[in-house]
What we know:
Layout: E1 2-11, H1 16-32, E2 36-52, E3 55-67, H2 71-79, E4 85-92
Antiparallel strand pairs: 1-3, 1-4, 2-3
Amino acid sequence: MNKYEIALVLSSKIDDEARTATLDKVKDLVAKAKGTVTDVDEKGKQRLAYEIQDMLEGYYYYLHFEGPVEAPAVIESNLRIIEPIIRFLIVRQDA
């Protein structure tokens, strides 16, 4: 099992319940890809480096998980279609 990190930027136009629901969806995607979420780090609302979809701010989250080698590709293909997610990045962490 490899260790990975998902960096998520969620839309600043959604409410707390929608953000929680989106995070739950991402956790479910990790579980479906045979991974386990080990930590969720919420950074809160921060200014974006540049304007994205007419927004200057977004909610930042970092999810750490362990999973098989094919997990990031499976998760990434599903993250693309979740509407409140405006940017994401999945990276492998060094052991």
